[in-house]
Amino acid sequence: MPLIEHSALVLALWALIGYLFGSVPFGVLISRVMNLGDLRAIGSGNIGATNVLRTGNKTAALLTLLLDGGKAAVAVLLARAMAGEDAAQLAGLMAFLGHCFPIWLRFKGGKGVATFIGLILALNWAVGLVVCATWLLAFAIWRISSLAAVAAASASTVWMAALGAHQLLLLGIALTVLVFFTHRANIDRLRAGTEPKFGGKK
């Protein structure tokens, strides 16, 4: 955990800014602009890149992935530049919550994987890269997006400790718990053996 250097009012301001950045539903916006229909009525109804991919438009899915990660990274970097590490971590956490529970969509958002990776990359690029590598390796082995997500989240705190990013550990634990929470239905299907693989059938 970083040293708390700012007042509660300043931190509350950066928490709000982080939430507002994170709450921008890029998947929904891109789907509308590209005439792909209402994303919330497609597939799982999720607003993230995986569900955008179910529309068959890979460009839209890639844009959603990059923007969902980028919005959290921007929130972190802006807070760090204008305030400091305590504000940056808080802004990152709130960007994640904003994506998962956006006020504009009645608090029904995405599962936060791209946002999670984006904010970790912005906070510590080395940790972010190995978290990305963990996701890619897990996905290559199992071909299940949700399993790769929970594996990467679970490993994130291990990588933080291994790479000396001890100030991120508390945030990493909180984010891991939140990733498991947003993937709770997927975890139930994984346990039941009914979670679909990429390119396969349910």
C-alpha Rg, in Å?
Answer: 16 Å
* Count of DSSP-assigned helices: 10
User: Unreliable stretches, pLDDT < 50, 5 or more residues?
Assistant: none
| DSSP, total strands | 0
What order do the helices and strands follow?
A: HHHHHHHHHH
Sheet with the most strands? Answer: none
Level of helix content?
55-70%
Shape descriptor reads globular
Mean pLDDT: 94
Gap from first CA to last CA: 41 Å
Strand content: under 5%
SS-derived structural category: mainly alpha
Please characterize this protein's 3D structure.
The chain contains 10 helices and no strands. Helix 4 runs parallel beside helix 6. The chain is globular and about 45 Å long. The mean pLDDT is 94.
How do you describe this structure in short?
The chain is an all-alpha fold and 202 residues long.
